Amino acid sequence: MVTVPIPTDSGAAPTRTRSGFLARTARFFALPVLLRSQAFRIVLIYVLLFAISATGLIGFTYWNAKRALDAQSDQIINAEIADLRTQYRQLDESGLIQLIMNRSGPGSQGLYLLADSDRRYVAGNLDGWPAGAQGRGDFIDFTYVRRLNNGQMAERHARGRTFTLRSGDLLLVAQDVHDRDLMGQLFSTTVPWTLALMILLGLIGGGLIGRNMLARLESINRTSKEIIAGDLSRRVPVTSSHDEFDTLAENLNRMLDRIERLMSGVREVTDSVAHDLRTPLNRLRNSLETSLRHLPAGSEQQSALEAAVEETDRLIATFNALLLIAEADAGVAREAMAPVDLSAVVRDVAELYAPVAEEKGVTLTTEAGSLLAIDGNLSLISQALVNLVDNAVKYTPAGGRVAIATAKSPSGVLLSVCDTGPGIPESERGHVLERFVRLETSRHSPGTGLGLSLVAAVARLHDAELTLEDNHPGLKAVLRFRGRASRSQ
């Protein structure tokens, strides 16, 4: 890894506008988000179970009530038939006719019809024999026409029983069950609408409950994202409701206080290490160089001191790399965020490494257009690109090519470094991003194994993504910076 001092852009960090918050709010209250919420699903399941239970209960109640009414009607009909049979044994047929005429008069609740063997009307308050009635003592359901109080004729429903007299005549005794059927029709019409209204109100209630829970969770998620971005001073809002979410928020805030204190301690230790070790190392190097100037050229002491200077340089480079990684992971450099022109960074780094590439016989090319800016830390982005280009030039053999490019994509901005070297096996690409990891093929080449670790830390600091891909042949390292980029001609 090579550390190159590149000046930091002094531009001020852009201020946040309300448009971003409104856009997040609009996305949060979008219907797909609400439908995927756990609270809405729980309420929906509860409403569906309640609707099914209510339907079963109402259906059972109706079936039981209908069964009871049918049994009552059948009992009345059987009692009436038994009485008429008794009267028929004591009277002749003319007496039975008179009895039927008396019972089927105006205001009668029962329905009677005495017919001859050919089913022609003899007596009763029914005009004709119902179709399908055989006179074998079976219960039948039929319709008949009845004159209402206003003089109009209406079709009604009835249930009755028939039997055959000794003379061969047929007698039908029935009860009007039209009101019972109307109740069944009312049930079949009302229950679906009731269930639909129940489900609709349940969905509305579930939406309101889900939106309220999502609002509380969104505040926690938003605070978590800001903390992940490096702002450890952020805390989860606590309301006055003192519910489970407030308890969770209070616990999270206490945990964040503890984490912030630990991070502050780590930073203090880092600062102390930087002050107590880096300065003595630099003094040691200066002392070694001073001693070198007083030794005769070609002596054994000079070779030993030169080796010591090289080891000291590697130690200082490792120390600086570790500090940069720690600062990037801790978000310390986030305060220096400002608009960074990636195209200018590419040109500067390419100009810096052009002599190195030319000396090794490697072709170094760039594909960077006009202004392509992102919000970032200029120094760290430049250092990350330096590490990628340094690795690419170092491992690309003579006659190979190294290309640095920037591009704009729908998801953000791409910064890539491609080479035609040996590449990295796919199984090792995640492993090489860890600290002090070096492949077997590069064990004997200069380096500390921290170059790609620093690039990954810079990517995390900028909410970017570092991917290592196959360049066919060689390696293609891509930094994907999310968010919008401004580009002008």
Keywords:
single chain, 489 residues, alpha+beta, Heat Shock Protein 90, 4 domains, five-stranded antiparallel sheet, five-stranded mixed sheet, 18% strand, disordered N terminus
Question: How is this structure best described in words?
Answer:
The chain is an alpha+beta fold and 489 residues long. The protein folds into four domains: 1-24 and 337-489, Histidine kinase-like ATPase, C-terminal domain (Heat Shock Protein 90); 37-90 and 177-225; 110-175, no CATH class; 229-331, Orthogonal Bundle (Helix Hairpins), CATH 1.10.287. The protein contains ten helices and 13 strands. The protein has helices at residues 18-28, 31-35, 38-90, 93-103, 178-228, 244-293, 300-330, 342-360, 378-395, 451-461; strands at residues 110-115, 121-124, 139-147, 153-164, 170-176, 338-341, 363-367, 372-376, 401-409, 412-419, 464-470, 475-482, 486-487. It has a five-stranded antiparallel sheet with strand order 2-1-5-4-3. Strand 1 and strand 2 (121-124) form a beta hairpin. Helix 8 runs parallel beside helix 9. The longest helix is centred in the first third of the chain and has 53 residues, at 38-90. It is rod-shaped. The two termini are 34 Å apart.
